[in-house]
């Protein structure tokens, strides 16, 4: 169900003497609760073509001014600034849809997570239409996480960070979980660990932009996109050192 929010009160009062410390929040669970088969490294190779950086510059800018935190009621509440030209917004926690907000011209908008978990990544994007068509979806905001004071603070994996991951491949022709059309340079990640919008360099593939998730994409697995054809099969499952760009 869609929820509509207008900010009527300052968040200051919500952040006084929280009864639930962020360290005491339950661990964030992977969204897929079914069995996940083991995905052993099988080897493989790329197609010899380097994926270029994925371009999001033509999309609506990400909402700014994200501010809030964990309240005495045990909920995470935050506000963000209106984006010119936006008709609606979607908020996410770890790549899972959290709230839909329509734009009535209000200068700030509010999101509430009634069931927060430890270390969650909160992100928001604007839409140029009240739908989830790929063309309407704006740029995803940076991640925000609770800090030691239970306030939300921006979070980004430092450039140059390396990850020793298993890298598989997929070729689904559809919208990604974020909402962009799947394509070269898109990858699926465990959004509890790697927030959407993170850019990675994958040896043998090129650049990938985290904009998707998957039922079997959990922990140390990243799925890189190939067009329909043999390339995804030829890739196999490789253990590679990825670099945050």
From TrEMBL:
Listed A to Z, the keywords are:
Signal
| Extent of the signal sequence | 1-23
Domain named 3D: residues: 188-242
**What residue spans carry the region label Disordered?**
39-58
> Which InterPro entries does the protein's record reference?
3D_dom, 3D_YorM, Resuscitation_pf_RpfB
What GO cellular component is one of the record's annotations? Answer: outer membrane
What GO terms are given for molecular function? hydrolase activity, hydrolyzing O-glycosyl compounds
Q: Which Pfam families match?
A: 3D
Q: Name one GO biological process term.
A: peptidoglycan turnover
Q: What name is this protein filed under?
A: 3D (Asp-Asp-Asp) domain-containing protein
The record lists the lineage as:
Bacteria, Bacillati, Actinomycetota, Actinomycetes, Propionibacteriales
